[in-house]
Write a structure and sequence with these properties.
heterodimer; A: alpha+beta; Beta-Lactamase; Heat Shock Protein 90; 2 domains; 5-stranded mixed sheet; 11 helices; elongated; B: mainly alpha; Sodium/glucose cotransporter; 77% helix; cell membrane (chain B); transmembrane (chain B); Na/solute_symporter_CS (chain B); Na+/solute symporter (chain B); ion transport (chain B)
Chain lengths: 396, 501
């Protein structure tokens, strides 16, 4: 027994692994459509199966890549010798025989791309052995725009083929429409995320400047400090790059925010921070704590409360960070809070909460929404959990 | 055998457990509750983080095992402390900064972020759990041995005690300020070895400095292929450190790549300082506890020496100090590993998430190695830990090094490398531990020190399969590479400018 023996063992292990993979693949293969039913049903199954195979690539829209992957399936669906998919300018894919027709096909399609009607034409091929004598072309239209055409070739004129090509083309159109729908949905989500990026309220800017103004004569040094805080805070809040930030930067911005608030309310507001240093590098959506702190300040100082205490803590919890923002202010009726989080709040109150909740769910999934404990006159405690790592989330 | 006074040792062990729980639970509250933001948001400085990493890293193998091996097998065993330390050099040069910049918290995170594949992530998770369990078994066995020697308690009691304390502390969230706990543990361990060592050396001088002789070492050499075994050890420890789950997790605490590098340099210094001590115990053990060379647990040398050399009340006191340090070693490494393994289990094995699942995962993470430590026959602590290093070196090292430095790594390549490299190492270790292959001859040597062949197998499989599947290179590779290798200078400079005003 030497190194050679070990090598043999390793090779055997590799072979075994390969065999296992193959076996796994074979066993999970789905039941083939032809295994059950009558011949007619078989044909139906085959057709539906082929169509279902062609659908996924088309859902990516009409590109060279998607056309290439779909064309093979579409041609077997039509049973023609050659099939060609084009967009408005050029041939995207040519599947089957007679590639030499590819260069003059766009000539034949000029009218079709203009008026969007089916046409049939003789291929006019000089090569007598070429089986492609006749072709039917059907436009691919999405929302009344002609995106391209499907061209099926045959040895002779065929009404059956014309009909089939028309049906297949319409099926392709539906898929392309779905693709369009997918795209607009993604755009909508992106636009939503952009809109959801929290904005600092105009009231806050106004109040801060007013508070700073009150210090200009009595305490110029303090006023200068506050102006610098204000400048820093706005620079951070108005920045446009990057969707994510780190907990350290976010807490820093909150500190500046609180400094400005304290300038206005002085002793009425007390803040306690408890931060585990381990979680400072955690990445999180930009400006998703600040609205919660703003909320706590507002609730804390609302009404007849003379003094208010806000506690902000960020603790290490295994593979997550746990951030808790707590105030001892007026609190809120839980039912009303539920309405706000369902998006039925109506007025401007609580927009910040809803916004943060939605962004957290969008980034981390529904398990990571806000957890809020509150009652009328009982203060409010907001808990959020942030995973230390999530693919695609990088603090910048 | 003059056993040290049981009472003093019990008190020392109880104190360490209590202090660990207290620092873990309240350390944060005392030091960080403030209204001053600049105090609250201070990131962990490299030196503090380095002490924490060292505290977590110096395990039973370092505290007890190295001295025992030197005692029995002589100065050749000094490769152990060298390897344990030098692993951080490789980590520093190839991995530290890019790993931090990747933003990954655990190895599965890194695999998923770099290769964009859930499959690779799952495989890495399985290997992390395997390597973690392998590393936990000797920690628990070491605890059992320590308690048995110090207090005469039955062998299984220490295993169960440490497992229970760790499970309770981790599951209850008592390790909230884990950094401070680990820093405390490092200095405790260093003190617990340093102070008795000073007294022992003084006593040895007072004894007329008898010479330590290692001449008869060949008679008890543990492997019939010593050179091969040494190389196996070197490869495993040099390349395995970077993949230890509890070490990787700690780099997340560094604020940026540069600090991660500085941290690693400080770790080198701190770990290096610590490893000067165990060989002293080994050499003195050769003189004063020679019977341990023939049968008996050589790992016990460190614990027995004070009573043997100094004796009396002083000996009891020093023995208790060492016992406390040893328990600090078990607790810190075991809790760090349990946290890391439990984190991986919650994320990738159990279906849903939440605190309840983390607790369940914690119990699972410590229960399996506990059963293992009670069932498996005792292997010297340092050897058992060496096996965990070998598994890590042949699976995670190729993944990290190629993932960070090679654009053409593909998910199938990574899977092949992990399965062939890590899988074969794991298999070899399992066979060795089961005792199916007995010492004399090459088969045992190859299986007991697998790193020499399994690391190249892992690298080769990863490279060849990646080259064979060029179409599967993840689309985000360039973006990931840019993030790994460009310093965060721009953004952090801006932030720093804002802060320093």
């Amino acid at each position: 027994m030497t190194g050679a023996a070990v090598a043999v063992v390793v090779v055997l292990a590799a072979l075994l692994l390969g065999a296992g993979c193959l076996l796994g693949r074979r066993t999970v293969r789905p039941v083939r459509p032809s295994d059950v039913g009558t011949p007619v049903e078989h044909a139906t199954f085959e057709t539906l199966h082929t169509a279902s195979l062609a659908a996924p690539p088309l859902r990516a829209g009409l590109t060279e890549e998607s056309a290439r992957r779909a064309a093979r399936r579409l041609r077997s669906l039509l049973g023609t010798d050659a099939l060609c998919l084009t967009d408005r300018e050029r041939v995207l894919v040519w599947d089957g025989a007679g590639h030499h027709h590819g260069k003059d096909v766009m000539e034949h399609l000029k009218v079709l791309l203009g008026n969007g009607r089916d046409t049939a034409f003789d291929s006019g091929c000089g090569d007598l052995d070429c089986p492609l004598r006749w072709a039917v072309a059907v436009p691919l239209t999405v929302e009344n725009r002609v995106l391209g055409a499907l061209v099926a070739y045959a040895p002779r004129e065929s009404a059956v083929l014309a009909r089939a090509a028309g049906e297949v083309a319409r099926w392709v159109c539906v898929q392309l429409e779905l693709a369009e729908l997918d795209r607009s949905r993604t755009q909508l989500i992106e636009a939503e995320i952009k809109a959801l990026r929290a904005q600092i309220s105009p009231h806050f800017i106004f109040n801060s400047l007013a508070a700073i103004a009150s210090f200009v004569r009595t305490d110029p040094e303090q006023a200068r400090e506050l102006l610098l805080e204000f400048a820093d805070f706005t620079r951070y809040s108005f920045r446009r790059h990057g969707e994510f930030t780190t907990l350290a930067d976010e807490l820093h911005s909150i500190d500046q925010y609180l400094a400005l608030v304290r300038a206005r309310f002085g002793e009425r507001l007390a803040v306690t921070l408890q931060v585990a240093p381990e979680v400072l590098p955690v990445a999180l959506p930009f400006l998703c704590l600040q609205p919660l702190v703003e909320n706590a300040v507002k609730h804390g100082l609302e009404g007849a409360v003379t003094r208010s205490r806000i506690t902000i803590s960020a603790l290490d919890a295994g593979s997550e960070a746990e951030v808790v923002i707590e105030d001892d202010g007026t609190g809120m009726d839980p039912e009303r809070l539920r309405q706000i989080l369902r998006g039925e709040g109506g007025t401007s109150t609580g927009i910040g909460l809803l916004n943060v909740d939605e962004r957290l769910r969008q980034v981390y999934g529904d398990d990571y929404g806000l957890v809020i404990e509150t009652g009328v006159g009982a203060g409010m405690k907001i808990t959020l959990r942030l995973p230390k790592y999530r693919a695609g989330v990088h603090g910048s | 055998m003059s056993a040290p006074d049981h009472m003093a040792s019990w008190v020392a062990v109880a104190l360490v457990v209590l202090a660990t729980v207290l620092v873990g639970g309240f350390g944060l509250r005392i030091s960080r509750t403030t209204s001053d933001f600049y105090v609250a948001s201070r990131t962990v400085r490299p030196r503090l983080n380095a002490a924490a990493i060292s505290g977590e890293y110096l395990s039973a193998a370092s505290f007890l095992g190295v001295a025992g091996l030197v005692l029995v097998h002589g100065p050749d065993m000094l490769w152990y402390p060298v390897g344990y330390t030098a692993g951080y050099l490789v980590l520093l040069v190839f991995v530290a900064a890019p790993l931090r910049r990747s933003g990954a918290y655990t190895l599965p995170d890194f695999a998923e972020g770099r290769l964009e594949s859930r499959q690779v992530r799952r495989l890495v998770s399985a290997l992390v759990v395997g390597a973690g369990w392998l590393y936990l078994v000797p920690q628990l066995q070491g605890a059992g041995l320590t308690l048995k020697i110090l207090t005469g308690a039955p062998g299984w009691l220490g295993d169960v005690l440490v497992a229970t304390v760790v499970a309770a502390a981790v599951a209850a969230g008592g390790m909230r300020s884990i950094t401070f706990v680990q820093v405390f543990q490092y200095w405790l361990k260093l003190t617990a070895l340093l102070v008795p060592a000073l007294f022992l050396v003084l006593a040895w001088q007072g004894d007329g400095r008898p010479r330590v002789s290692f001449d008869d070492q060949l008679a008890v050499f543990r492997a019939d292929h010593p050179l091969y075994a040494t190389y196996g050890l070197i490869v495993a420890t040099f390349l395995g450190t970077m993949g230890l789950p509890h070490v990787v997790v700690r780099f997340y605490t560094s604020p940026n790549g540069r600090d991660a590098r500085r941290t690693t340099v400080a770790v080198l210094a701190l770990v290096g300082l610590f490893y000067l001590l165990p060989p002293i115990y080994g050499a003195l053990g050769r003189l004063y506890t020679p019977e341990l060379r023939y049968g008996g647990d050589a790992d016990a040398a460190v614990l027995l020496l004070p009573a043997r050399v100094i004796g009396g009340l002083g000996g009891d006191f020093l023995g208790a100090l060492i016992a406390g340090g040893a328990f600090a070693a078990f607790l810190s490494t075991a809790s760090g590993l349990t946290m890391a393994v439990a984190g991986v289990i919650t994320q990738d094995v159990l279906p849903a998430r939440g605190v309840r699942h983390f607790r369940l995962a914690t119990v699972l993470a410590i229960a399996v190695p506990l059963v293992g430590s009670l069932l498996v026959s005792r292997v010297p602590v340092a050897d058992a830990v060496g096996m965990a290093f070998a598994v890590s070196a042949s699976s995670f090292c190729p993944l990290l090094v190629l993932g960070i430095w090679w654009r053409r790594l593909t998910p199938p390549g990574a899977v092949a490398g992990l399965l062939l490299g890590g899988g074969s190492a794991l298999l070899a270790v399992a066979i060795t531990v089961s005792g199916a292959v007995r010492p004399p001859g090459w088969p045992h040597a190859l299986l007991a020190w697998p790193a020499v062949w399994s690391v190249p197998v892992g690298f080769l499989a990863m490279i060849l399969v990646s080259l064979a599947t060029p179409g599967r290179i993840p689309p985000g590779t360039n973006a990931a590479m840019t993030r790994f290798h460009l310093p965060e200078a721009l953004s952090s400079a801006r932030a720093a400018a804002g802060r320093e005003r």
